[in-house]
Write a structure and sequence with these properties.
The structure is a single chain. The chain is of the alpha/beta class and about 325 residues long. An 8-stranded parallel β-barrel has the order 1-2-3-4-5-6-8-9, surrounded by 6 helices. The longest helix has 20 residues. It is globular. It starts with a helix and ends with a helix. The chain binds (3S,4R)-3-hydroxy-2-oxopiperidin-4-yl beta-D-xylopyranoside. The site of (3S,4R)-3-hydroxy-2-oxopiperidin-4-yl beta-D-xylopyranoside has 6 residues, from loops. It catalyses: Endohydrolysis of (1->4)-beta-D-xylosidic linkages in xylans.
């Protein structure tokens, strides 16, 4: 029994989780994380991001990321890369830098190339690296997000990043990863248009990562349809950062039953879409979730509780597959 086993029985590639290595001295946490019956895939929650991998221009530091990659190799899980270009968790020299367009194009290209190249070769068979090449390129209304990349390079930084990543590792699946694209709507439509235009221009793009930082009781009803619409464009999809916070409900027995049902709904949607390849939890326990828990109403977003005991949500996932 286990989440990853359930996913595989349903012909998905994996059920995985994000993690931070500083949690690994928690022996109960670590033993669940290690268990391939529960998790077949790992995403570094932080340490493959720009601030950690290129803290100074042209100075690449992969030691922290390698700790995750080595664990993945040792346990025989799959690795998802995360991420090449994002407006958050950037080093100061990028956020506060002044660049001409050609200078920043060089900087983006070098970063994506070096990052993906470093983890190249962990791709074949046992290991499956997908660079989530750009996260969160769009605003909720579907316009491009104003950040250092867009403001300097317009949307050209996206093909620059994708092409550099493809060159760095031709076998890595390249994803654009975003939030608030769970249901249909302006932002999803804009991303579909972006995927179409990338494909038209011959820019490599293999998948869409749907983050799924969701709220209990508020699961978009168009989730499955939306995934199908992405898949119809010739890309695969993955649920890349699933968690489900309490916001307008209380985490009492009734709330936990709702959370269980909502996890099941999300998993079922992925299960029904052939091109939905897998699901990643954005960590598996309330103890280490990035969503703060303020009793009684907020947080508690994961399938294991703060004492590392399984919650009803765990059974919801099993049921969903
Ligand atoms: C989060 C990490 O989990 C936190 O530890 C960190 O402080 C902030 O970033 N979308 C993403 C992830 O793509 O990289 C974010 O991870 C959560 C939102």
């Amino acid at each position: 029994d286990g989440l990853n086993l359930a996913a595989k029985a349903a012909k998905k590639l994996y059920l995985g989780t994000a993690t931070n290595a500083d949690q690994w001295n928690d022996t109960v946490y670590y033993s669940i994380l290690k268990d391939n019956a529960e998790f077949g895939q790992i995403t570094a929650a932080n340490v493959m991001k720009w601030f950690d991998t290129e803290p100074e221009p042209g100075v690449f530091t992969f030691e922290d990321g390698d700790v995750i990659a080595d664990f993945v190799k040792k346990t025989g899980k799959k690795l998802r890369g995360h991420n090449c270009v994002w407006h958050n968790q950037l080093p100061d020299w990028v956020v506060n830098g002044t660049f001409t367009p050609s200078e920043l194009a060089f900087v983006v290209e070098r970063h994506c190339y070096e990052l993906v190249h470093h983890y190249q070769g962990q791709v074949y068979e046992a290991h499956f690296l997908t660079g989530s090449v750009h996260t969160e390129a769009l605003n909720d209304d579907g316009t491009f997000r104003s950040d250092i990349f867009y403001d300097t390079l317009n949307s050209t930084y996206i093909p620059i990043a994708l092409r550099a990543a493809r060159r760095a590792d031709p076998h890595a699946k390249l994803y654009i990863n975003d939030y608030n694209i769970e249901g249909t709507g302006a932002k999803s439509t804009a991303l579909k248009n972006l995927i179409k235009s990338l494909k038209r221009e011959g820019v490599p793009i293999d998948g869409v990562g749907i983050q799924c930082h969701l709220t209990v009781g508020e699961i978009p009803t168009t989730l499955q349809q939306n995934m199908e619409e992405f898949a119809a464009l010739g890309v695969e999809v993955a649920i890349t950062e699933l968690d489900m916070r309490f916001l307008n409900q209380t985490a009492n027995a009734e709330g936990l039953a709702q959370q269980r049902a909502d996890y099941e709904t999300v998993i079922k949607a992925c299960n029904a879409v052939e091109k939905c390849v897998g699901v990643t939890l954005w960590d598996f326990t309330d103890k280490y979730s990035w969503i703060p828990t303020t009793p009684p109403d907020e947080g508690y977003p994961c399938p294991w509780d703060e004492n590392l005991k399984k919650k009803p949500a765990y059974d919801g996932i099993i049921q969903g597959f």
